[in-house]
Each structure stands twice: as C-alpha cells, then as structure tokens.
Amino acid sequence: MKNEKKQSIDLETAQSLILKKCRVLSAEKVNLSKSLKRFPAALLVALESLPGYDQSLRDGYAISREQQGGKNCYEIIDEVAAGDTRKLLLGENQAIRIMTGGLIPENALAVVPRELCSVNGETVSVKTVFLEPQRDFIHRKGCELAEGEVIVPEGSAIEVEQLILLAGVGYDSVPLVRKPRISFFCTGSELISGGEEKLAGEKYSANSHLLHGLIEHAGAKVQVQGTVKDDPEAVMEALIAMNESGSDIIVSTGGMGPGKFDLVEDAFLRAGGRVIYHSLHLRPGKSTLFGMLGRSLFFGMPGPPPAVHLLFNELIRPAILALQGAKNCRPREVEAYLTENLYFPKRGLPRLKSGFLSFAEGRCLVRPSTTIGGSNCYIYCSESARELKSGERVTVHMIDSLPCID
Ligand SMILES: Nc1nc2c(c(=O)[nH]1)N[C@H]1C(S)=C(S)[C@@H](COP(=O)(O)OP(=O)(O)OC[C@H]3O[C@@H](n4cnc5c(N)ncnc54)[C@H](O)[C@@H]3O)O[C@H]1N2
Ligand code: MOO
C-alpha cells in the first residue's frame, strides 16, 4: 500500500496520452437507417449524380421551347406524375401537366407553377410575367452532387444532410466503424441498488445508471457492468473478467482516494495493467488513473458522480470518438460571458464547473448550473483564480459536442 504524493498531469496532456492509445476499431456493415451520428469505415462517395434526372420543382406545366404566335398558349398533350418513367418530348406550343418530382421532357423550356397558369379545356395559357423565366423550376440532374463526389469527409460522423444524400444515391447499407465496447464497475461497500432496503451508511449507486446512460448516449455499447465491494481481490477479478470479455474500454468508479489505500490502482497493477498516469491536475477529477490492461484502455475514476460526469466528457468521450476514427475529439471550447459570480474556496488546481450555455442578443452567455438544473458545458477557471466575476469572458468546454470537420 503506497501513499506517496502522486505526480499529476494537466488535462490537455492527459487527453493527448489517451488519444495516442486509441486505434481505430474494425468495420461492420450497417443498415443506413442505423447510421446517423456514426462514423464510416471508408470514404463514402456518391454512387451516382443527384438528382439522377431533371425533375420538376413545382406542380404545374412543362412548356415547350418553341412558341409561335405570341399568345402564350400551349396544348396539353400528356400528364407526368412522380414515378412516371416515360421519356416524353414536346412539340411546338405544347405542354404537359407535371407533378413535383416528375421527369421533365428533355426539350422543355421551364416548368410554370400552376398558380401562374390558366387552363381552358386542353389548353393552358401562361401569365406574361413568366415569359422570360428567371427561374425554370427544373432541378437539374447532378446539381446537388456529382458522381464520385465525397459525401462524408474522413473523420466525420454521418449527419442528417449526409444521410439524405447517401439514401438519395442508393446506399442501403454502409461500412461503419463498430461501436466501442465498454465495461464498467462501481466500487464501494456502501453501494446498494435502487429498490433494496437501505441502512444508514449505505448509498444507492448513481454511477451505475450514470455511466450506462453516458456510454450509450455517446454512441458506444455497454459490454459488462457490475458493482464490486472494496475488496482488492474482487476488483482484480472484475478487471480481468472485463478485459477477457473483449472490452475496448474498462471504467471503474471509486476506490481512488487516499482513504481507500489505492485499492483500484493496486488491483489494476496486480491484474497486469500498465499505468500511464495516476493523477490529474484538475478539480473535480484529481484522483483519476489511466492505463492499459492488455488491449483495453482503463479509466479509474473517483467516486463522486459529478466527477464521473466531468471525466466522461473530458476523457472517455474523446476516446470513444477516437476509437471510431473521429478527428477533433476533444470537447469543443467556446468563449462566453458569465452571468453570475463564481467563487471557489481556494486556489491550487484548475477547475471545471458545470454550467449552462445560452444565447441572447447575439451573445453567448453562461451561468453555473444548479443541482437539479441541467448542464450543457463546463466553465473553466485557472488555478490562480479564486473567483470569476459576472460579465467576465470565460472559456467553456461543451458537453456532447460532436467533431465537426469544417
Ligand atoms: N484526506 C483526503 N481525502 C480525500 C482526498 C484527499 O486528497 N485527501 N481527495 C478527495 C477527492 S477529491 C475524491 S474525488 C475522493 C476520491 O475517493 P474515491 O475515488 O476513493 O471515492 P470513494 O471514496 O469511493 O467515493 C467518494 C464519494 O463518492 C460516493 N460514491 C462512490 N461511488 C458512488 C456511486 N456509484 N454512486 C454514488 N455515489 C458514489 C461515495 O459514497 C463517497 O461519498 O476522495 C476524497 N478524499
Ligand atoms: O478527484 Mo476528486 O474527483 O477532485 O473530486
């Protein structure tokens, strides 16, 4: 049992050390419907141009180029609904009735929206305002996407716009990086599950639910989960079992403080783990260990749930993204104006305080979050400051920010 003062490293160095250990996982074929916000395992390009044919943008009339007599009158010779695959041609002074999305005759001049037409029997006349069409209401083949064009840039997740394009060019399934498999356990002899009878000194485990939710929300899979007593043997066995289950990441909570005599670190070393760092220059989250157990990344986190939430956002979520080949995995930083004073009891460590970012009158505002209010960011406070004043410009780290390749 050691109790020497641990060398702590700053957050940015910790993030770099973690990201260096992340190798992109293998690929799997996934139905396009399940691909939103996931990362492609190969460059996804347009299989064909989009749209694939000249199509109408309005319900109306496709009119011929040739027009004689200056009467703006056209004979309606046919009707094209969406899905009609006939290749029609227009003769002089001819028109076809066409629906939005319908295939345009190759030699049409334009589509005239029906509200700019008047129909008399089988003749349509066009209001003069449309004689020199500024807009032809034809969505031209290939104007959105050329065949072979890259739809999802490397290192970027599939976003809504890209999903629409992928579907539009005919993808039914796509190769994606498989979801990282994460196993976790909560240590603490005081922990019991919701529904169990509780005695003084016992506590319902919040971290089990918190981690499960955070892992799934971050796009990873929960492989194995458990609760372990403050017993070195039991912690070691949990680590070995989770490693053998093929976990990409193993997480523990609790058992990191001086009172627990390095419970988790000792068990991790006995299980064959290699420590990369074991203390962070940050509060909360100081008592945090990162290492490798075989091919699994291991995060030993402290027990308090707010510290678990913070460390998940700053360290584990970036690893989940990096394992899927994402670029720019760190939480996005934003500058915002503080709307309340923020005090810290003492100097010494940089802090990240949970906050809520909002927008008003063109400015980014941030306030500290309350116990029962939600948070969407962390407010950064340097180690030399004891307070941040209302109105001050501060840096915040966004929670849940997806990498964006601009
Ligand atoms: N003398 C010192 N004491 C402590 C120091 C220190 O520097 N000197 N550091 C403090 C800090 S900071 C932290 S963080 C904790 C770290 O302790 P552990 O990682 O060993 O965490 P535990 O003691 O197991 O738990 C701390 C706290 O969190 C509660 N907890 C734990 N697991 C859960 C869970 N699954 N759900 C809900 N709550 C949980 C636990 O009951 C404790 O209240 O050490 C400080 N002490
Ligand atoms: O390590 Mo503790 O999490 O600073 O709060």
Automatic annotation (TrEMBL):
Single GO MF descriptor: molybdopterin molybdotransferase activity
Keyword Transferase recorded: yes
EC number: 2.10.1.1
Residue ranges annotated for the MoaB/Mog domain, each copy included: 183-322
Known pathway: Cofactor biosynthesis; molybdopterin biosynthesis
Cellular component, GO annotation: cytosol
CDD domains associated with the record: MoeA
Catalyzed chemical reaction(s): adenylyl-molybdopterin + molybdate = Mo-molybdopterin + AMP + H(+)
Cofactor field: Mg(2+)
Keywords recorded for this protein, A-Z: Magnesium, Metal-binding, Molybdenum, Molybdenum cofactor biosynthesis, Transferase
Top-level taxon of origin: Bacteria
Database matches in Pfam families: MoCF_biosynth (PF00994), MoeA_N (PF03453)
One of the GO BP terms on file: Mo-molybdopterin cofactor biosynthetic process
Metal-binding is among the record's keywords: yes
Family per record: Belongs to the MoeA family.
Annotated function: Catalyzes the insertion of molybdate into adenylated molybdopterin with the concomitant release of AMP.
Record's protein name: Molybdopterin molybdenumtransferase
Organism listed in the record: Desulfocapsa sulfexigens (strain DSM 10523 / SB164P1)
